[in-house]
Amino acid sequence: MFDRFFRWLRGVIDRMLDSKTAKRMGITVAISDGMQQAIHRWIDMYRGKAPWLTPNPQHLGLPALIASEMATMVMLEAEVNVTGSPRADWLAEQFRPLTDHLRLAVEYACAEGGLVFKPYVDGKDIAVDLVHADDFYPTAFNSRREITGAVFVERKRVGETRYMRLEAHQITDQGYRITNRAFKGTGEDSFTQEVPLTDVDEWADLQPEVNIQNVDHPLFGYLRIPLGNTIDPKSPVGVSVYEKASGVIEEADKQYQRLLWEYEGGELAIDAVEDAFETDQKTKQVRLPVGRERLFRPNKLDPKDASDEGLFHTFSPALRDASYIQGLNKLLQRVEDLCGISRGTLSDPNEDARTAQEIKQTRQRTYSTVTSIQRATQKAVEALLTAMDTLATLYKLCPAGKYEAAFVWDDSIVVDAETERQRDMNEVRDGLMNKWEYRVKWRGESEEQAKAALAEAEDPTDDELLDFEPKA
What does pTM read for this prediction? Predict the structure, then answer.
């Protein structure tokens, strides 16, 4: 069903972009079938509907947890400040509603591989749509792998009729072109008839085509998760933070199901002959003690054939849960390593016996992953602000003026300890940090102890004084 819909959509998009410029540039949907299928798989995993859960829906919810944890590390105490002019103040006011949802937007991007910030004029203001990866189809990108053209999908339902609007953004020799087309159908993925935009009230004021002069940049910002793409290395779209671990996540869910079955199958029970219980005169069914229905399991054995153990047999097998839990924990640790998050986030932190070097490597992986997503988020927000500034000028929403965007990223989680220690060493030598402050921070001394140690030292070198290296 999905493959048929995607082929139809690809054909429609190609026709929407059918112009001399499009033909000359070879514009088409710049995403492969494999990548589109992967995006839908990531979304299903995030929603707890992974394909391997069809026979048994019990799962750990790892994809949603991983995306949420990564977004929390990326956005912890993050700030975006827009300053410089009355235009900057106006942009900051328009951007403020998004700040409350920015962490959630990053979570969706981490799960789906990417997300689009698409601004639009709403009266005298500018609002921002969050376009998910399955409603966004790139059509062009530059040599820096930055997406410069795209088609956005919006769906509406009116009664039993479903509508879909395709909004294509394209940079041409004449400027920036936005094209809108609407379709209707009866199924989720069946839109066979093109209809006027006026058929849907929310789309009635949209123009089928708009050409904007002197605009050479996209009027949207794309947050691309900057991880290696093993599905389609040439694709301009991002990859889910849990793609590399998808196979292990499947095994972890199955191991979790085995653990639950071990508990369920090993429940205490008493096997007893039916004659040991009362019988309901109306239904002729055995009447079990109220509140003990799960405990007793009646059977049709003849009391005369009962063994010497009597009419009741206790079923209480030894549970093998320890082995299942240990195996599950190993899988969770592997998921953590593949997703670039710290050990103990998903697994049992008390079961992590590693060397100092291994701990250091794990922290460095987390540091690298988080900082790269922070840079990608900053780039997407900068593109969004540029688009908002352009719309403000085009629609004369605010007097023109320059602005500057400053980003603050909290590094208390992601900074590698050794990197921070080296930075503090340099600041001491440059006179930006007191020597006693360094000892307090890195040796656990009080201020008095640190100052006393410095006063008692007899002409030590800087390295000896700060405990960078042992004295001879």
Answer: 0.78
